[in-house]
Amino acid sequence: MASTTGRILESVDEGKTFQLISRPTPVAGSSERCCATLFEMPRTVGSIKEGSLLYAASDFTGGVPSMELYQSTDEGHTWSFHSVIKRAGDGKHGLWEPHFSIARDGALVVFWSDETDACCSQKLMQARTVDGHNWVDFRDTIATTVQSDRPGMVTTTKLPNGSYFMTYEVCGHFQCGVFARTSPDGWNFGDPTDLGRLLRTGDGSYFAHAPQTVWIPNDGGMLLVIGQMLYKSDGTVDAVRNGRTIFQNTSVDGSGPWSPMAAPIDVPRSFDNYCPNYSSALLPVAAGTLLELATDYDEKRQCITYSDVMSMAHLEFKIAAHVR
Questions:
Q1: Which of 105, 147, 152 is nearest to 124 (CA)?
Q2: Per-position b or e across 114-137, b if 16+ CB within 10 A of its CB
């Protein structure tokens, strides 16, 4: 399953092709602004059953930013309103980029970027539900003491040792560099004022903007991180590897060295913009293969989503597909 710009797509051939199956419709008075996420429930949490699909985005309801949750119990073909996670802010201060995870205690956790607190230009927040309906325990995930810092675009993945690995960008002084931190339980990620660590390879390269992370269970497993743009240690864009690189780490907790590998899709013209290589999605599909969905401008300057599958064993590119 995939979501892009308010559409739900399905693949039944391991990501070779995708078909449009539905469009979640916001409730009356609401409209989707951007930044949607799609999540399959790996277990039952209260009233939300295992196998249900969840869809949430940055919405605008009655002139107020909101995050509304929609649920599908028929594999994405139909959708129903579930709940309002949060509603706050104004036309200039919003709620962005929700992301879901299941914590070790079984709670459904949501993270998001929040501009509605005067403390910060933007911070990361989290909340959870244990009954599958009521969102509780709202708290800061990362809220630095530097006003101009803008941590955002959080993603998490559960690791085989039971811990959780989180990536996010930090803008302002750090120019949207990709940072990371870990949690023993998927809920407690440490001191919110601690920015974590900037992810770098051995030669000092680092990503900036819109990271995604996933654990791949092949050949002992590896942790993968992708970002929109790749910079060299001197702070200049890597003209050779930009838009076509993934970082890999074979340590079970992400503490080991990071090294570059080829991405399934080339977006060599990636730059600081909402389209090219922005929030590229990674997913293990058939054994030993990695699916990527990435966006780029076509010859008509339309922002198009593409998919491709790569063999992790031989780094071979194959099964190019166009998502329409």
A1: 152
A2: bbbeeebbbbbbbbbbeebeebee
266-283: pLDDT as tens digits: 999 999 999 999 999 999
Question: Can you say how many angstroms the Cα of residue 62 is from the centroid of all Cα atoms in its chain?
Answer: 27
Domains of the chain and CATH, by start: 1-149 (2.120.10.10), 199-324 (2.120.10.100)
- 318 compared with 32, residue with greater pLDDT: 32
**224 is written with which tokens?**
């993968």
For residue 152, pLDDT beyond 60: yes
The predicted pLDDT at position 313 comes to: 64
Query: 19: burial class by Cβ within 10 Å (0-12, 13-18, 19+)?
Result: exposed
**For residue 223, what is the enclosing H or E element?**
strand 222-226
Q: What are phi and psi of 172, to 5 degrees?
A: 65, -130
Q: In sequence order, what DSSP letters do the residues of 60-77 get, joined into one string? A: EETTEEEEEEEEESSTTS
The candidate with the shortest Cα–Cα distance to 97, out of 120, 125, 117, is 125
Burial class (CB in 10 A: 0-12, 13-18, 19+), 11: middle
The amino acid present at 259, given as its one-letter code, is S
pLDDT on residue 93: 94
- Pairing mode of beta strands 108-114, 123-129: antiparallel
Q: Are 183 and 142 in contact (CB under 8 A)?
A: no
Phi, psi of 229 (to 5 degrees): -125, 145
Residues 302 and 323: their CA atoms lie apart, in Å, by 13
For residue 268, the 8-state DSSP code is T
Coil, helix or strand at residue 98: strand
Residue in 310, 311, 306, 308 with CA at minimum distance from that of residue 294: 306
Residue 314: partners with Cβ closer than 8 Å, 6 or more residues away: none
CA distance 149 to 195: 10
Global pTM value: 0.94
3-state secondary structure of 174: helix
